[in-house]
């Protein structure tokens, strides 16, 4: 994150786009006066980066650590606005090219170094699964040109949801947003200052304060609204975060907000620390964020900055000025850059694991790399005379060339591996069409396969399992989308039995398998899917727009089902869905009642229901282990991977018209669960089945549905 900037020399502003300096062109006005370094703000950086790092290393223990990014935004707003206002006051203008050049020299060297490292890793089939390559390359390029936040927003990424396959550069979303801030903020301040000079008797400072206050207020309102209506993109959208920079800016611009009174500073500073600690442990992935909840860590960070008295050693300003806090604050930018790629890559490194000792060793490595980067990359490049003694455009053009080189490296990674990727796609299609005899679940369920041994076979290969998923994404409704999207496949015959497949992503993972079953058996297949929203009438405990969208989707699906002529319904759901326990003794009881109520509406019409016990859920994608270790070393304890009491089991027990399938013993033995069964790679991520493996269960799905149709 950006460092403290320097003071500026005198000038006069006449037009926001005009720059007039009475200094040598090779020296920025920032050199006119000594730098102003604020130790406790640097210590606050340490708090911010450690919140993020601890959250990423141990999300269960520090569930709200993602607020560290919000703290960085406040710090940046405070420091950059202070810098710009000093220059604006002293010189009457801001030399934009020099400001942006300083930002480039400060931020790009370390940033592009890590991106180049990630591009090299992406090109290595040994460290990165081939299936992940296209998304890695796209996001590296988006991060290189600082639009990663928009890429994630437009692709509806859910930063607080730990499922899926995040790239090595996903954390660059915040850096992208900050760079956009560096572009927009001085322009806003220049325009406000020009308006103040032209129409308000030269009241430039008041005009700037008013403009930033208005921008911040509108941004906050937008943030709250957008978080409620579009929670996933709201996390990344630039304008929804501008108010956090604005809070820091107002602390910088309004002297009365900086508390120098001893008691006031003591209380305010420690209250800010308490607010951040509270969010670190009490916020989690279910907290509607950013929205109004982001006000707590934002104001907490602002309070710490505003606490300006440092007379006593027990004041937060003094504690945050201690050498350890200063050291972590100094390396915070590089530490932020390095820690996430290493976390993503580490599970794929031979002989590496996820024990506490491995995590601590990796954390130590992050600190070492951060210090080395600060010492040998950040500091030297910032002071390179070849850049600082030349016009700002030299720095800016050099930055563009460096960015193009990194983007080219990412493109090269794709070009080198594209043939292997395309071959993997073809091999996967062939495997689906012509699987081996007794492959996958058949080895465990077909008595005729007893004694068959697949040896070390793993199909699809662990490096390619990630793309072995249903292709009809248009049938899957995500996040806050409440539209009851329905897709139809299979027979067009008016007399064909109609089977509905309904549920969350654990139902969607069966789509390709059920399409093939429908084609082979002459059924018409009708689907309704929504992510993290099982077919159930009990509300989710998830607050905000997502929980509301789930309820709305269910109501809309129920209305459509009432008008459809169905012959059978198949449903599946992840067992760890968080249900509201309101009105029941437990969330489990509420879930059971909700399933039975949802099913009852079709059972009362004589339509049978088939459901299935959920598959195991792993802490991390087992393919990361399979790519570097023997399959036997990648087993997981049954007690940790299976939910003790899947509510689907209790809901289906003793209910007439409901057929319950249980493949638990296919996935797991008495004590452990395996990611490979009968030579088939079971998972494409930590909890979703590969289409290849789901296809091996097709005979038993078919048998259950045919049995239900016969009873209908």
Automatic annotation (TrEMBL):
SGNH domain boundaries: 485-699
Record domain Acyltransferase: where: 42-373
BP GO terms, sorted: lipopolysaccharide biosynthetic process
UniProt keyword list: Membrane, Transmembrane, Transmembrane helix
One GO cellular component term noted in the UniProt record for this chain: membrane
Pfam families with a match to the protein in the record: Acyl_transf_3 (PF01757), SGNH (PF19040)
Transmembrane segments: 64-86, 107-128, 182-200, 207-228, 234-255, 262-283, 289-307, 327-350, 356-373, 394-416
InterPro entries: Acyl_transf_3_dom, Acyltransferase_3, SGNH
One Gene Ontology MF term: acyltransferase activity, transferring groups other than amino-acyl groups
Protein name in the entry: Peptidoglycan/LPS O-acetylase OafA/YrhL
Organism expressing this protein natively: Microbacterium immunditiarum
């Amino acid at each position: 994150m950006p460092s403290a900037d320097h003071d500026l020399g005198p000038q006069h502003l006449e037009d926001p786009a005009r720059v007039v300096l009475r200094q040598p062109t090779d020296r920025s006005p920032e050199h006119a006066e000594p730098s102003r370094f604020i130790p406790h703000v640097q210590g606050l950086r340490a708090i911010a980066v450690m919140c993020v790092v601890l959250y990423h290393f141990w999300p269960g223990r520090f569930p709200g650590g993602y607020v560290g990014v919000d703290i960085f935004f406040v710090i940046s707003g405070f420091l950059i606005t202070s810098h710009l206002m000093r220059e604006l006051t002293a010189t009457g203008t801001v030399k934009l090219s020099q400001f942006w050049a300083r930002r480039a020299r400060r931020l790009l060297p370390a940033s592009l170094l890590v991106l180049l490292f990630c591009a090299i890793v992406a090109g290595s089939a040994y460290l990165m699964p081939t299936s992940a390559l296209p998304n890695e390359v796209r996001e590296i390029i988006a991060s290189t040109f600082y639009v990663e936040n928009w890429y994630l927003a437009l692709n509806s990424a859910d930063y607080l949801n730990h499922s899926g396959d995040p790239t090595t550069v996903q954390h660059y979303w915040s850096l992208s947003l900050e760079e956009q801030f560096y572009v927009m903020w001085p322009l806003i301040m220049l325009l406000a200052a020009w308006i103040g000079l032209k129409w308000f008797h030269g009241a430039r400072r008041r005009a700037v304060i008013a403009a930033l206050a208005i921008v911040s207020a509108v941004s906050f309102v937008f943030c709250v609204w957008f978080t409620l209506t579009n929670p996933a993109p709201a996390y990344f959208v630039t304008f929804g975060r501008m108010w956090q920079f604005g809070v820091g800016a107002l602390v910088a611009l309004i002297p009365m907000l900086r508390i120098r009174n001893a008691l006031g500073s003591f209380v305010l500073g420690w209250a800010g620390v308490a607010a951040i600690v509270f969010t670190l442990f009490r916020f989690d992935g279910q907290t509607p964020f950013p929205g109004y909840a982001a006000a707590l860590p934002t104001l907490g960070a602002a309070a710490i900055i505003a606490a300006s008295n440092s007379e006593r050693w027990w004041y937060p300003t003094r504690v945050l000025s201690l050498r350890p806090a200063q050291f972590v604050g100094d390396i915070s930018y590089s530490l932020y850059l390095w820690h996430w790629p290493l976390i993503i890559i580490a599970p794929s490194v031979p002989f590496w694991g996820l024990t506490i000792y491995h995590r601590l060793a990796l954390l130590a490595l992050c600190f070492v790399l951060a210090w080395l980067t600060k010492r040998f990359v950040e500091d030297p490049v910032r002071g390179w005379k070849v850049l600082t003694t030349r016009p700002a455009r030299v720095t800016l053009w050099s930055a563009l060339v460096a960015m193009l080189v990194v983007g080219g490296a990412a493109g090269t990674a794709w070009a080198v591996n594209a043939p292997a990727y395309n071959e993997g796609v073809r091999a996967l299609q062939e495997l689906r069409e012509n699987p081996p005899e007794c492959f996958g679940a058949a080895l465990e369920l077909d008595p005729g396969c007893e004694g068959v041994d697949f040896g070390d076979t793993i199909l699809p290969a662990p490096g390619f399992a990630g793309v072995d998923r249903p292709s009809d994404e248009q049938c899957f409704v995500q996040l806050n989308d409440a539209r009851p999207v329905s897709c139809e496949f299979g027979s067009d015959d008016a007399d064909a039995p109609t089977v509905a497949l309904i549920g969350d992503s654990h139902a969607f993972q069966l789509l390709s398998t059920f399409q093939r079953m429908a084609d082979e058996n002459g059924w018409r297949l009708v689907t309704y899917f929504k992510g993290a929203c099982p077919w159930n009438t009990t509300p989710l405990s998830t607050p905000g727009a997502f929980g509301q969208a789930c309820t709305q989707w269910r109501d809309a699906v129920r209305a459509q089902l009432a008008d459809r002529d169905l012959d059978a319904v198949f449903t599946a759901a992840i067992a760890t869905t968080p249900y509201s326990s309101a009105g029941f003794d437990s969330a489990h009881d509420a879930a059971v009642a909700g399933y039975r109520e949802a099913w009852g509406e079709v059972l009362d019409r004589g339509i049978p229901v088939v459901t299935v016990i959920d598959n195991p859920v792993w802490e991390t994608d087992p393919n990361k282990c399979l790519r570097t270790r023997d399959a036997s070393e990648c087993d997981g304890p049954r007690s940790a991977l299976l939910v003790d009491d899947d509510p689907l089991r209790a809901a289906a027990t003793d209910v007439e018209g409901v057929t319950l399938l249980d493949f638990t013993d296919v996935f797991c033995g008495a004590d452990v669960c395996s990611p490979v069964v009968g030579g088939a790679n079971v998972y494409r991520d930590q909890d979703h089945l590969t289409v290849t493996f789901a296809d091996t269960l097709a005979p038993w799905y078919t048998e259950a549905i045919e049995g239900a149709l016969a009873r209908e």
